């Protein structure tokens, strides 16, 4: 009887001490947009230079319309996105001053249900998505929530931090911590 009581006490203690999924996400290192503040370009919007990124011409309407909105990231860039199916999206990074078009580091089927957070006056990009959807047969039973932060340095995205957490549901990945 004493052994059963001790075992029950240990199990209750473990249950109470274990953080829930959202709490585990909260304990990650987070950078602030203010840490990566940049001045915002207020000049004229350049026409997109489709020669700077082969293949981008196929999305000329999406890119032109996105560029018309002006700066939305890192002082003088526009992140212009498009869908590629259910839970699938991709984007280009377009320089509002020059019209040059660059690859965006995330998107497609490897970044399922991608969500991004960014600001016109910051070079910090925060992203989260469901990972391992192509390599993991049981991904829908226990999806991997990936959160990653990048900073744009010149025209390259540098990864600052990444966490991967197994979740009970896909929705848990996108809950506000």
Give an overview in words:
There is one protein chain. The strands form two sheets. This protein has a four-stranded antiparallel beta sheet with strand order 4-5-6-7. The model is unreliable at 1-26 (pLDDT under 50). The longest helix has 16 residues, at 2-17. The chain contains four helices and seven strands, in the order H-H-H-E-E-E-E-E-E-E-H. It is of the alpha+beta class. It has helices at residues 2-17, 21-26, 60-68, 170-173, and strands spanning 77-85, 88-95, 101-107, 112-118, 124-131, 144-153, 156-166. The protein starts with a helix and ends with a helix.
Low-confidence stretches: 1-26
Q: Mean pLDDT, rounded to whole units? A: 83
Strand order of the largest sheet: 4-5-6-7
- Cα distance, first to last residue? 41 Å
Q: What's the number of extended β-strand segments? A: 7
Helix content: 10-25%
Supply the number of helical segments. Answer: 4
| Structural class by secondary-structure content | alpha+beta
Radius of gyration: 21 Å
Order of helices and strands: HHHEEEEEEEH
How many strands, which pairing sense, and closed or not: the largest β-sheet? 4 strands, antiparallel
Please indicate the percent range of residues in DSSP E strands (runs of 2 or more): 25-35%
Shape: globular
């Amino acid at each position: 009887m004493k052994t059963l009581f001790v075992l029950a006490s240990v199990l209750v203690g473990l249950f109470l001490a274990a953080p829930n999924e959202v709490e585990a996400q909260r304990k990650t290192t987070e950078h602030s947009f203010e840490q990566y503040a940049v001045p915002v370009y207020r000049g004229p919007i350049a026409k997109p230079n489709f020669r700077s990124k082969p293949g981008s011409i196929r999305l000329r309407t999406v890119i032109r319309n996105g560029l018309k909105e002006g700066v939305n990231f890192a002082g003088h860039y526009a992140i212009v996105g498009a869908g590629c199916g259910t839970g699938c999206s991709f984007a280009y990074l377009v320089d509002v001053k020059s019209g040059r078009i660059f690859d965006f580091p995330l998107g497609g089927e490897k970044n399922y249900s991608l969500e991004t957070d960014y600001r016109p006056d910051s070079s910090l990009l925060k992203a989260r998505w469901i990972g391992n959807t192509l390599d993991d047969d049981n991904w829908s039973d226990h999806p991997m929530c990936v959160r990653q932060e990048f900073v744009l340095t010149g025209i390259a995205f540098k990864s600052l931090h990444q966490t991967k957490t197994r979740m009970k549901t896909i929705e848990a990945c996108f809950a506000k911590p």
